[in-house]
Amino acid sequence: MIEHSTFLFKDSKNLTGSLVLELAKLPLLWFGQLYLLLYCFLPLYSVLILFTKVVLLAFKPLLHNPFL
Known about the structure:
Elements: H1 2-63
């Protein structure tokens, strides 16, 4: 009977340890996903900014036209 109770205690301790380990992994997973999102979308964002600058430079003479 004593062995059985220590086995249960050992198992619950292992479960708590694995739960703590899983909770410790969560921020790493979130930061990893955030890094992947930034890594994927930051080039698109910079291309969008570059495209906007090119369009604004192309239409700058039209924007300063007093007859428009």
